[in-house]
């Protein structure tokens, strides 16, 4: 059998050689994480049975999607980014780049990154605690946890298990979901499906990534792009007759794009212990132009498609919350939808690309800027590694 060492997907990808980068410049000394939250009391109650009464919700007839008895709505949001920042000026001192190049080509000014020893589950817990505190529910009411992440603390146990343990949530279950930058919206659809099916009344959906753990800080093509962060929402069934919650979603994967954005090392194909698995293989590799071309078309296409099949146009969208990978991709999608700037949420300047965390972080930005209000028609859209892509339509519930 032909060896595929150093080649993935028909030779479109090759590992760039080089010595192991010094990460100490980025990852300072090991530290724990504090997210400014009071310790949460653990309340043990009987595990709630599945929903017994029908809420009577029916979807928009024109959609034909999610025609299930229960519509899932977001009832709380919490986010967290680590305090430490890595600015464009910092990066100018580390690689051959300029602040101006980064800003004009990506829209990023700074990003937050963790201290050494802080992992995805730590960020996830901080975000989830904020969401739970906002809703004011006992932990025992959380019936499931779905975590979108491509930087789990370790391959297993899953981040969901670690979150359960660290938060002290009794009698729940959960799992991680790997979908790159679409991780949050895929996790949202999974959680919504449990609620819609009547299986669960309260599901915690989290997007959390510590991208700095897999970035080569000598590679200017990737190190300027990514940051760390987490966001969490609580999903619950809409009340009887309510028009709030998740209306529709479209998801799409195209595995032919895999080689253009990947982290090849450490899995079963290139186990870390194999001598031919080089340190470089544990870093993110991206063919930026290929991903850009795909993302700029796909994010707009999938957004137009979900609006169209629900009988809507850009005019009906109050708040467009796109994945934050590149300001030019966001602007292209917004232009296709004819959306004015005041209905497009952008915070890439402050956080960079935090993969699964971008959309909840952007929800928080929208909220803080008073641009996300009860009853708003919200469009979420993402494209990422895989390729994965998706769009979600929802009416903001609180
Ligand atoms: O969220 C997951 C999905 N990911 C994305 O959506 C990312 C999609 N891709 C992008 O956002 C863009 O492709 C990048 C921001 C990554 C790159 O921007 P670009 O306009 O596509 O640049 P490029 O790759 O075509 O490179 C243009 C030039 C090259 O130099 P030459 O060959 O023209 O001399 C690069 O070597 O810019 C150079 N370059 C840089 N220069 C300064 C690449 N990175 C840098 C840098 N600083 N950091």
What does this structure look like?
This protein is α+β, with helices and mostly antiparallel strands. It folds into two domains: 72-242, 3-Layer(aba) Sandwich (Peroxisomal Thiolase, Chain A, domain 1), CATH 3.40.47.10; 246-395, 3-Layer(aba) Sandwich (Peroxisomal Thiolase, Chain A, domain 1). It contains ten helices and 15 strands. It has a five-stranded mixed sheet with strand order 3-9-8-6-7, with helices on both faces. A four-stranded mixed sheet has the order 10-15-14-13, sandwiched between helices. Helix 3 crosses helix 4. The termini are far apart. Oxa(dethia)-CoA binds at residues 97, 101-102, 105-106, 181, 220-221, 224, 261, 288-289, 291-292, 295, 325-326, 329, 353, 384. The site of oxa(dethia)-CoA has 20 residues, from helix 2, helix 6 and helix 7.
- Could you say which structural class the secondary elements and strand pairing correspond to? alpha+beta
The proportion of residues forming helix, as a percent range, comes to: 25-40%
Question: Radius of gyration from the CA trace?
Answer: 21 Å
Give me the CATH superfamily of the largest domain.
Answer: Thiolase/Chalcone synthase
CATH architecture of the largest domain: 3-Layer(aba) Sandwich
């Amino acid at each position: 059998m032909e060896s595929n060492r150093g080649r993935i997907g028909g030779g479109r990808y090759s590992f760039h050689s080089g010595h192991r980068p010094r990460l100490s410049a980025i990852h300072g000394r090991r530290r724990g994480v504090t997210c400014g939250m009071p310790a949460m009391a653990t309340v043990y109650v009987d595990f709630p049975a599945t929903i017994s009464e029908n809420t009577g919700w029916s979807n928009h007839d024109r959609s034909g999607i999610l025609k299930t008895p229960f519509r899932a709505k977001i009832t709380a949001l919490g986010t967290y980014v680590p305090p430490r920042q890595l600015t464009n000026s910092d990066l100018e001192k580390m690689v051959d780049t300029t602040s101006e190049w980064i800003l004009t080509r990506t829209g990023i000014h700074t990003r937050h990154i963790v201290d050494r020893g802080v992992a995805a589950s730590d960020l996830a817990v901080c975000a989830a605690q904020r969401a739970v505190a906002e809703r004011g529910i006992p932990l025992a009411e959380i019936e499931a946890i779905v975590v979108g992440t491509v930087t789990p603390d370790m391959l297993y146990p899953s981040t969901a298990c670690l979150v359960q343990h660290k938060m002290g949530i009794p009698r729940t279950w959960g799992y991680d979901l790997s979908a790159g930058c679409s991780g949050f919206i895929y996790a949202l659809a999974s959680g919504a499906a449990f609620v819609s099916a009547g299986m669960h009344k309260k599901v915690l959906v989290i997007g959390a990534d510590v991208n700095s753990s897999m970035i080569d800080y000598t590679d200017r093509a990737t190190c300027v792009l990514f940051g760390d962060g987490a966001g969490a929402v609580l999903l619950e069934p809409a009340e009887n007759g309510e028009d709030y919650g998740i209306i529709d979603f479209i998801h799409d994967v195209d595995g032919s794009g895999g080689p253009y954005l990947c982290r090849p090392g450490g899995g079963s194909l290139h186990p870390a212990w194999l001598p031919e698995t080089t340190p470089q293989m544990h870093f993110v590799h991206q063919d930026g132009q290929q991903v850009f071309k795909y993302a700029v078309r796909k994010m707009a296409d999938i957004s137009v498609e979900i609006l169209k099949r629900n009988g809507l146009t850009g005019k009906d969208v109050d708040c467009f919350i796109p994945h934050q990978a590149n300001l030019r991709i966001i602007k292209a999608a917004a232009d296709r939808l004819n959306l004015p700037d005041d209905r497009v949420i952008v915070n890439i300047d402050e956080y960079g690309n935090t993969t699964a965390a971008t959309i909840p972080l952007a929800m928080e930005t929208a909220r803080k800027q008073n641009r996300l209000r009860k009853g708003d028609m919200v469009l979420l859209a993402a494209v990422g590694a895989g390729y994965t892509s998706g769009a979600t339509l929802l009416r903001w519930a609180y």
